[in-house]
UniProtKB/TrEMBL annotation:
Record-given protein name: 8-oxo-dGTP diphosphatase
Gene Ontology MF, one: hydrolase activity
Entry similarity comment: Belongs to the Nudix hydrolase family.
The organism of origin for this protein: Streptomyces luteolus
Cofactor: Mg(2+)
PANTHER family for the chain: 8-OXO-DGTP DIPHOSPHATASE, NUDIX HYDROLASE FAMILY PROTEIN
Boundaries of every Nudix hydrolase domain copy: 3-131
InterPro entries documented for this protein: MutT-like, Nudix_hydrolase, NUDIX_hydrolase-like_dom_sf, NUDIX_hydrolase_CS, NUDIX_hydrolase_dom
Length: 137
């Protein structure tokens, strides 16, 4: 049986716009977009991991609002994605810096969500996130 690895993603909102990150690595994912986040480390709970990942990779502090319903399998066997809605609390939307494995960030208004080429495994997560956000906007 394949070990299950949890990956957490942040549906980071500022002024009603969702943050998307464009992959620069690995090569087969380069140019595609995803929600920022990363793997949960041993001994870490998912919420702690997401706050840590967004702090380390984007240089921001966030407030997690709630988990977006759903869980989505990733490209690598055993990896699954869970997403939490989050609010930016310590940086402006313009103050976010790119991730290590990313070369661009983009804030997307609700009518721009599908203007970027999302990774296949992020598409259902983005759909669920948009549905979640629409019920709270």
């Amino acid at each position: 049986m394949t070990e299950r690895i949890l990956v957490v993603g942040g549906a980071l909102y500022a002024e009603g716009r969702l943050l998307a990150a464009r992959r620069s690595a690995p090569a087969h994912l380069a140019g595609r977009w995803e929600l920022p986040g990363g793997k949960v480390e041993p001994g870490e709970d998912p919420e702690q991991a997401l706050v840590r990942e967004l702090r380390e990779e984007l240089g921001v502090e966030v407030k997690l609002v709630e988990r977006v319903p759903g869980e989505w399998p990733l490209e690598r066997p055993g990896y699954v994605l869970r997403v939490w809605a989050a609010e930016l609390i310590s940086a402006s939307a313009e103050g976010v810096r790119p991730l290590e494995d990313h070369d661009a960030l983009r804030w997307l208004a609700p009518d721009e969500l599908w203007d970027v080429d999302w990774l296949e495994h992020d598409r259902p997560a983005v759909t669920a996130t948009a549905r979640w956000h629409a019920t709270r906007a």
